[in-house]
UniProtKB/TrEMBL annotation:
UniProt keyword annotation of Transcription regulation present: yes
Residues covered by the HTH merR-type domain: 1-71
Gene Ontology molecular-function annotations: DNA binding; DNA-binding transcription factor activity
Originating species: Segnochrobactrum spirostomi
Disordered: region residues: 128-148
Name the record gives this protein: Helix-turn-helix domain-containing protein
Amino acid sequence: MKFLDIGEVAAASGLTASALRHYEAAGLISAVSRHGLRRQFPPEVLLQLKLIAMGKQAGFSLAEIAGMFGRDGVPDVPRAALHARADAIDRQIRELTALRDTLRHVAECPAPSHLECPTFRRLVDVAGRRGGRPRSRRSKPAAVRAGG
């Protein structure tokens, strides 16, 4: 089996060598040997790095991701944690969708001043009650669909 040195892994993954050393220190990846001072990794490390990147993108911490790898490096994913994270992402999507709809309404509102627009004022009131987060809805409010 041909091993990849740290430079090859860095080039193939887009990560820096220092990030790879950090991941190794955190127990996320393991070098199998050294060639001189350069760490050598099995080719499977590239798949592990993709899984780490996916976990980070989903909002998991490195410690949580490390817990998802078994002792032999094979993923041991807690399904309940994935469901909980997916639910959190769904909530974030709803909040961002509501924010996007608010921004579009503000951009397209025909009122001479946004403060004169009842829909805008209602959206601001709702966002203020929610600590700055607009209320998420499955569809646009009737006043928004009707143009103001």
